[in-house]
Fold:
Amino acid sequence: MAVAAGVGVALAAAALSASAVGATGATRLAVTYRPHGLYPKRGESSSVYRWTLTCGPAGGTLPARAAACRELAAHGADLVHPGVQCMVIVVGGPSAVVTGTWNGERVNFTSTTCSRAWSTLPAVLTGSTRGR
Structure:
């Protein structure tokens, strides 16, 4: 019985340790931003921006790294649990793809401006604090 209790305590400690790692885990993201979406209108740029971002400390190639890490600290869950997105496909509107890990959680986020993340995480999605 004492062995079983000891094993139970060890398993509980391991689970607590794993959840703590997830809560404070690393943030490493790859961001792809298309200012005019997948299908730009005639005369619009078809530019695609690709950046990396790490937080704690802020690093990578994203231009607004510090602002993006502050946004992620406050609203990073919007990348993991984006909530309801509109059902309208915005042709020619901005789009972003973010993959990697945030706070140790897997991120696979794709959206046009219909997602709440466009208002809570603009520096992460566009690389700018001014918008594009």
User: Anything to note?
Assistant: Confidence is low (pLDDT under 50) at residues 1-23. The two ends are 64 Å apart (CA to CA). The first strand starts at residue 27 and ends at 34.
